[in-house]
Design goal:
Length: 424
């Protein structure tokens, strides 16, 4: 590139004249006198977004690129300015930091004028002020349109990616469902044989064999439970469920849950308190499904509460906006709690917090493993009954154990009039 081609102030004045047309002679003189010619090599940063800048620049030769930093790695290209164009005026007018970064697109020669003479001239020439304003608004409009176009394109990309993810998720769910379905039958047979072996007198007499068969039975039970949970969930998610409603006594349903966990509660030295359930009216719902909701909530409370803790199940009637009269059951524990960032996600299928490797294999031992399906199943069932479920916790802390509270609300209004015969 040729070096700056100004040999006198007069030439600078003549360069500025068409750009700032309409300026009085003495104002052009003031600017030409204050102007400094400077050159930058390709790639040099002339102004940096966020930094204070008190100069306006006029491009004499070469080009600059004006960009906005979106994040550490991404830039948003705004404009390319060539000979006769100027930049840097916004920071001067706003008396604020630079709103964009300007970089030399190649070797570039600029005229640099300080804010003081520039503002002095601007103060005397309202026409120049208006022209700058019009130019700024034009640029803003262009960049708005560009941004809208980019957003539109990004949106289309996102929707496409979402569709693909949904498709993949569906394929995965189908695969898991088919596998669970296929495997459940042989596992049920295995479980039956393991049970028969376990009950066999010869095996009962032999401590070593008893332990071995006990292990096979426990493993088969676990697999059976897992496949059943997967099938429950896939039915809830894909096939939709028919809620076979009949009047249900929640205390009776809960007794079943309590007896399933009696042994575990004893072993883990956990106290289970039940309050207010008996005062609840019969609820027209699906007893098997409601059993599963309670089962998973209590199972989790056991799993995530250290030995010696307390689990409280409270039933009450609640008047809820948009749902009316509801039966509310809350399961509260004195366990490790849930981090705020996880609280909404734990109801997603297969979502488990913490290191997967740390999930051990027991279903009721402290922080024992689980496939991450219990809450998704509970949510599906509650919603199929027209209700809602959510979790509350001050946070996750294995030392302080702030506890968690899971609340289920089931609206009475969704009940079926024809359900008459009480059934457990
Ligand atoms: P999982 O089989 O892993 O227990 P769930 O769907 O039942 O699957 O629960 C999902 C996750 O929610 C769990 O992995 C656990 O991190 C968290 N969670 C559920 N219940 C509790 C609870 N009572 N206290 C603390 N964390 C809980």
């Amino acid at each position: 590139m040729d070096s700056p081609s100004f040999s006198s102030q007069l030439e600078i004045k003549e360069f500025l004249r068409p750009i700032l047309f309409g300026l009085a002679e003495e104002d052009l003189d003031t600017l030409a006198e204050a102007a400094v010619v400077c050159t930058f090599p390709a790639g040099a940063v002339i102004c940096r977004e966020g930094e204070v800048g008190e100069e306006i620049y006029f491009v004499v030769d070469g080009h600059v690129e004006i960009v906005k930093q979106m994040d550490e790695d991404t830039e948003h290209y705004l404009h390319r300015a060539g000979p006769g164009e100027y930049f840097g005026e916004i920071a001067i007018l706003q008396e604020g930091p630079r709103v964009a970064t300007v970089r030399a697109a190649g070797p570039v020669t600029l005229l640099e004028i300080g804010q003081e003479p520039f503002l002095a001239v601007l103060g005397r020439s309202p026409a120049l002020g208006i022209r700058i304003l019009v130019r700024m608004t034009g640029r803003l409009r262009d960049s708005d349109q560009q941004a809208i176009e980019e957003l539109r394109r990004a949106n289309i990309e996102l929707i496409r990616a979402l569709r693909q993810l949904e498709q993949l998720d569906q394929t995965k769910t189908d695969f898991i469902r088919v596998s669970a379905h296929e495997l459940r039958t042989p596992v049920a047979a295995l479980l039956g044989y393991a049970q028969m072996m376990h009950d066999n007198a010869l095996i009962q007499e032999n401590a070593e064999l008893r332990t071995l068969v006990g292990g096979v039975r426990a493993g088969a039970e676990r697999l059976h439970r897992l496949f059943n949970s997967i099938l429950d969930l896939s039915r809830l998610m894909t096939d939709g469920v028919t809620v076979r409603r009949s009047p249900v006594s929640l205390p009776v349903v809960f007794q079943g849950v309590e007896s399933d966990f009696e042994q575990a509660l004893k072993e883990r030295n956990l106290r289970l308190e039940v309050k207010g359930l008996k005062k609840l009216p019969f609820y027209a719902g699906d007893p098997d499904m409601l059993f599963k909701v309670m089962y998973h909530l209590v199972n989790n409370a056991i799993k995530y509460t250290p030995n010696g803790g307390r689990i409280t199940v409270t039933g009450r009637m609640a008047e809820v906006p948009e749902m009316g009269q509801c039966i509310e059951v809350a399961v509260e524990d004195t366990g490790i709690g849930i981090a705020p960032g996880d609280i909404a996600l734990i109801f997603e299928k297969f979502y488990r917090t913490g290191e997967v490797a740390l999930h051990s294999s027991g279903t009721t031992i402290f922080k024992g493993g689980g496939p991450g399906l219990g809450l998704a199943i509970a949510k599906g069932i509650v919603e199929a009954h027209g209700g809602r479920i959510w979790a509350e916790s001050p946070g996750y802390d294995e030392e302080a154990c702030p506890g968690s509270r899971f609340v289920v609300q089931l609206p009475l209004e969704a009940q079926v009039e024809s359900a008459i015969q009480p059934k457990v």
